[in-house]
Design brief:
Pfam families: bPH_2. The chain is α+β, with helices and mostly antiparallel strands and 168 residues long. Helix content is 49%, strand content 23%. It folds into two domains: 54 residues; 84 residues, PH-domain like, CATH 2.30.29. The chain contains five helices and seven strands. Strand 3 and strand 4 form a beta hairpin.
């Protein structure tokens, strides 16, 4: 393998894996709470700066505005980096832009599969699939799936888990 070929492979991108993306509606689900959290102090800081007449107070809303712009750029990249792939013996879940993460969950290790959606998720038409294993440190969740895909994945993973567990 040449040096150029080895630079194309990564521990986060196994060979011959077709990644399934999550719904782009997850961007909206993640940006709305951020807009609320950043918008309240932005407005409060702007009101305080206007009412007090102190020019230095404009730093407060400017900071929250910059944080909002940064989030508006970062969140879509984070959502685009989330993906999952079903293989014969395990499920791969990847996420992260700066700090990448790849979780490999063997089907035989799954104890149960959970699907959940909060009010904002339901409004946007997305759900999350959570995989529970014997490991307390396991962080195997796939957010931002359309509800039909979440239900399909839940049933498929549960069936594969039972089949692998029965083979032990």
């Amino acid at each position: 393998m040449s040096a150029q070929d080895s630079s194309l492979t990564s521990p986060f991108d196994p060979a011959e894996v077709v990644w399934q993306p999550v719904s782009p509606r997850l961007v909206t689900v993640r940006l709305i709470p951020l807009a609320i959290v950043l918008g309240v102090p932005l407005v409060a800081g702007a009101v305080a700066a206007v009412l007090s007449g102190i020019a230095g107070l404009w730093v407060v809303p400017a900071v929250f505005l910059l944080l909002g712009v940064w989030a508006a750029v970062l969140v879509p990249r984070q959502v685009h980096a989330i993906g999952y792939a079903e293989r014969d013996d395990d499920l791969l879940i990847r996420r992260g832009v700066a700090f990448r993460n790849l979780v490999v969950v063997p089907y035989g290790r799954m104890q149960f599969v959970d699907v959940h959606a909060g009010p904002l998720d339901r409004w946007a038409g997305v759900a999350a699939v959570q995989l529970h294993t014997a490991s307390a440190a396991s962080d195997a969740a796939i957010p931002g799936l359309p509800p039909a895909e979440a239900a399909r994945l839940r049933d498929r993973l549960a069936a594969r888990g039972e089949a692998r567990l029965a083979g032990l």
